[in-house]
Amino acid sequence: MRKAKTALCLITATGLTFHAFNPNFLSSSSDSFPNFPEKLRAPIHGVNRSSRAIATIAFTAVDYKFTLHGLSVDSDEYRQKLSEVHRRSASRIRKLCEVNRGFYVKAGQFVAALRQVPKEYSLTLSSLQDQAVPYHFKAIKEVLIRNLGTELSDIFLSLNEHPIAAASIAQVHRGVLKGHQEVAIKVQYPGLEQQMKIDTTTMYFLSKSLAWFFPEYRFEWLVSEFVQSISLELDFIQEARNSETTANNFANNKWVKVPRVFWDLTTHQVLTMEFCTGQKVDDVEYLKERRIHPIKVAEVLLEVFAEMIFIHGFLHGDPHPGNILVSPEGQNGFSLVILDHGIYKKLDEGFRLDYCQLWKALILLDSKNLQRLGEQFGVAKYSRYFPVIFTGRTIDSKSALGKAMSVEERRNLKQELKSLKMEDISSFMESLPSDFLTILRTDGLLRSIVSKLGAPQRVRLLAYGKYALYGLSPKLNPESDFALKVVFSRLKANASYYRLRLVLEVLQLLSWMAKVKLLLYTMYEKIRLCY
Q1: 366 catalytic per annotation
Q2: Do 156 and 178 form a contact (C-beta atoms < 8 A)?
Q3: Catalytic residue (choose from 199, 282, 283, 318)
Q4: What is the pTM of this model?
């Protein structure tokens, strides 16, 4: 720890020296110093990025301190000023991510996908695109030859030197093998491990510094989650294993396609897989052109990820639109091609079962069970907010599931939330299990896609409710267990689902009847007043 602090002090001092001689320090590209040797350029870029990050966060901390100084946290002026400084700071951090690129863009996207951060941050950072200036093919070729151990002409009939995709840590090239198989080759950029060490050390340093200035703002949990996920993404062997596990889990699902891995051409830095065609899952115009119903795509997408969470307990942690393609191929008129299997979470079995119980309790608004599960997850004090986070209604709601809160419910919730401080939010997020944080982020990304596809929230709630009940059924092996036992278990799960669905339909009917009653009463009063 002492060595890390010393290194950061040196980085800061060196960066401020650069700043003194470069007035465009906070907006200049991190690709400066092109004439330096590669071995020197990487650490200099690291110093440059770290110093820029430290300067940006220091300026942001000062902005918060001065803007909110002397204001009562319970006043409307405080809330207005807080929103303004959130917006300014989010723009500042977005600019930092765009200039520093690489892991900083990844970090910005990671934060944007969390619905629990202030909306000013999630809205501003969601515009970050995981795009990078592609490396020259000469550098990519060196990585390929070093990893594959032979000349490219010995392996490929053709290899397009222009990448079909370039992101923060790798770029993808299209090629044809000697056996005439069409493949996509994902190649990791050189020098990333050293860059990651510098960048993540800076992020830890900044999170600790912020907590020192603002004890109620604690983000170390967020940095830990990000570092853990990005470390997984750098190992292409592990990504290939994740891909195969998912392919096996969905082997009997006709809606899902996972590209086949070519293991003899895969290493820690090179991943070769079957080339699959398709368009981004949220490209509504493409879907309409192909006469594929967007809401059907949303239903299939949600059921696939619900199965990952509630049944397999093996979850793809980065389902942004570029990682899920809609292909017109498939027995059902289309299929979902799932890509980029670097970030996965193997859910603890006890957590998986508790999470299934949570969704059952959420749909039935079972406050007793919600309290018990809140204790299981270490956040009993905040368990009453689970329905708001996941279903968009309060624990005392009279609205039908999937419907918006009433004006009165919104007013009461807003009043209740005024009593919550940033300390409460920090405490809530710190206390949650790591598995829970991964699900929150994944669910945030899925909700964004489903919204673009035009599907109502009810579609998501039904999918999650259905698979939560399936997930509570005993896991049976159709090949080894008695056929009657397997059939009975599935019938029982289906019966529970239809019973749950009946409850939802009745709740919706009662809600509709209440609205009709109110409308008739209003009309009666108007008629009575006229006479």
Answers
A1: no
A2: yes
A3: 318
A4: 0.81
